[in-house]
Specification:
With about 130 residues, the protein is mainly α. The protein has 5 helices and no strands.
């Protein structure tokens, strides 16, 4: 199956988003976020990267799993960022978090059609 430009763009955006969470596992006490949020962000980044690899390899059964992992982990990642908009942190942090949320949502929207395409390629059980 040939990957569309939209799918590749979505996978790259999600991979970058997943990678951006990994440093929080190495040093969870840096930045204004609580340690728990930093650890959750790092774990969700790993889950996102696993999903990206599954979709990139494009085996129809695993594409649906990969897209599911990407969507769930990224939505949870966005939800974990929401409290930051109500916290007393510098506006620059809030702007960076808002940009990250937008990029994440665009990336998720771009990979969702791959789930449907993989379903159409998978033969239904008789």
């Amino acid at each position: 199956m040939k990957r569309s430009a939209a799918l590749v763009t979505g996978l790259v955006l999600n991979a970058l988003s997943g990678l951006s969470g990994l440093p929080t596992l190495v040093s969870p006490t840096t930045g204004p976020a609580p340690v728990v949020i930093n650890v959750v962000t790092g774990v969700l980044g790993i889950v996102t990267l696993v999903g990206v690899v599954l979709v990139w390899r494009w085996r129809s059964g695993r594409v649906r799993l990969g897209v599911g992992l990407i969507v769930v982990s990224q939505v949870l990642n966005v939800l974990s960022a929401v409290p930051a908009f109500f916290a007393d942190i510098p506006a620059g942090y809030k702007a960076a978090i808002a940009a990250g949320v937008v990029v994440t949502l665009v990336g998720v929207a771009l990979v969702l059609p791959a789930r449907r395409a993989a379903r159409q390629l998978t033969p239904s059980p008789a």
